[in-house]
Amino acid sequence: MKRIFTILCALALVMAGSATALAAEPEAGQSASYYPVSVEEYTYGDFDELRINKTYQLSLSDDPSLIPTEDFVRNGRRYYLLDMTRKDEVGVDIQTHTEAVTQASDTNNLETILQRLDAEMEVTTEDGYVGILRLDHTSVQVTTDGYATKTSTLTASRSYPNLSEADTSLIPKSIEDKGKTLTLGDVKWSESMDVDGEGNPVTRYTATASYTGTSTSRYATGYTVSASYTGAVSKPNCAVVTYTAIFGSEKAPEESKTPDGDGAHDPDPGQTSNGDNPGSTEAPDTMKEPADQSGLKRPVIIGVVVLALGAGGVFAFKKFRERR
Length: 324
Prior knowledge:
Blueprint: H1 2-24, E1 38-44, E2 49-58, E3 72-74, E4 77-105, H2 110-116, E5 120-124, E6 130-163, E7 174-177, E8 180-195, E9 201-251, H3 294-323
Antiparallel strand pairs: 1-2, 2-9, 3-4, 4-9, 5-6, 6-9, 7-8, 8-9
């Protein structure tokens, strides 16, 4: 008999403990799945009501119903949800971008090249970033495309007057002109009458000689200018939804002393009910009920029922044996 009673008592304790564990588990969908990015405490209204704003940032794929909205106690005050606000925002990703450009030029004069380059340029990158870039003057470089050689003909003429005879041997066969050597090509003669020292007439000749030559020079066939434009580019990166949970507060109720544990709570001193102040923005009294104590009562009730059943079973078993 004692063994049966002991087993029944142990069974009652196990069931009570299981009920307590089940009562302590949070309801589905009300776990703290998200954490706030900021928590702000402040006072509100004429009575300096303490409030807390909890801000959450979620993506479009996140479920806002998982944001914790249950009542909680902090510093002797019970906080309860008043409102939830939503704000859609767009995140922007900004990066530094450098764009290299090249262009042909017929000169290597840097001053002329800088005047021809644009000071700014709009750019759209392959991955969707847009922005305005500015010329980096220190990046400008000029390179020669190549070289070629050209030959040009040089000409010069010389006059040789007062010659005694029209003889080409009296004419120089080559001359130097601007650093180039030219050779005799043609001679034209002219004559004039003159008198010598004794008064006798003599003929004098003037030679006009033409000289020719060639010059070979090397020149650049063209130039390529390279420059870099640098600046910030941006693009919308991600959609963000900002939720703000607004919690009002009241003094945390003391443990209820009424038999059923459902006694009404008193508001904070200095606060008026909605009935006394029609213009008040406070939440209705139903929002300020004490925390549900049913989770604590349930294990006790279950334990009592199990003990009663166990005692009844023992009593019935004892009567059965007496009759036998």
